[in-house]
TrEMBL record:
The lineage of its organism: Bacteria, Pseudomonadati, Pseudomonadota, Alphaproteobacteria, Rhodobacterales. SUPFAM superfamilies: Ribosomal protein L1. Binds directly to 23S rRNA. The L1 stalk is quite mobile in the ribosome, and is involved in E site tRNA release. This is Large ribosomal subunit protein uL1. Part of the 50S ribosomal subunit. GO terms for biological process: regulation of translation; translation. Belongs to the universal ribosomal protein uL1 family. The gene is rplA. The keyword Electron transport does not apply. GO terms for molecular function: rRNA binding; structural constituent of ribosome; tRNA binding.
Length: 232
């Protein structure tokens, strides 16, 4: 068994025995243990009581974090004409139509969010097998298939986070950086949990939020008091 480094050992000792914390306590502890040389991402994971194999139990949504993510979001837009110009003015990084489709089919995906106008969906639809598994497929339910390209690009650039339950009912996302003030991280965590709570599907039975954990990129995770954090 590999020996743990001093930093890793100290971080694990710091969280040992600390469970079911309040959001404030968890944020303070995780932030204090994010001691890497780079600005670690603060990550949240929620274990939900849903079976994503059933359509009426799928959890999906979007939330604008009040203090952003701290991450530079690269945005691609499928649009033509005036809408392409609108995307460019709003700050989109990549804009195209058939040419962009061919680039993606060739294996080049240099963006974190993909937006499309409705008329572009016959083209974008051919990329389902490529973009779908990466959770990059434009979808009207989360505002990425829209004629309001300007608002969609600005939202993506401004710290909007999409979430989707994976196999096993787990939802996870980055909710800020370790360099953020504790108060700002707390606000972001609460906003994310609230959004997932509101996205509870009609088919969910029993306990919806089973476990919530917070961690940093390189640090150990801590669990939150689900009832207090979610208001259930």
């Amino acid at each position: 068994m590999a020996k743990l480094g001093k930093r890793t050992r100290a971080a694990r000792e710091a969280v040992a025995g600390k469970e079911n914390l309040s959001v404030d306590e968890a944020v303070a502890l995780v932030k204090a243990n994010a001691t890497s040389k780079f600005d670690e991402t603060i990550e949240i994971a929620l274990n939900l009581g849903v079976d994503t194999r059933h359509a009426d139990q799928m959890v999906r949504g979007v939330v604008g974090l009040p203090n952003g993510t701290g991450k530079t979001m690269r945005v691609a837009v499928f649009a033509r004409g005036p809408k392409a110009d609108e995307a460019k003015e709003a700050g989109a990084d990549i804009i195209g139509a058939e040419d962009l489709m061919e680039t993606i089919q060739g294996g080049t995906i240099e963006f974190d969010r993909c937006i499309a106008t409705p008329d572009m969906m016959p083209i974008v639809g051919r990329l389902g097998k490529v973009l779908g598994p990466r959770n990059l497929m434009p979808n009207p339910k989360v505002g990425t298939v829209t004629m309001d390209v300007k608002a969609a690009v600005e939202a993506a650039k401004g710290g909007e986070v999409q979430f989707k339950a994976e196999k096993g009912g787990v939802v996870h996302a980055g909710v800020g950086k370790a360099s953020f003030d504790e108060a700002k991280l707390v606000e972001n965590v609460r906003a994310f949990i609230s959004a997932v709570a509101k996205a509870k599907p009609t088919g969910a039975k029993g306990t919806y939020m089973k476990k919530i954990a917070l961690s940093s990129t390189m640090g150990p995770g801590v669990t939150l008091d689900v009832a207090a954090a979610s208001g259930e």
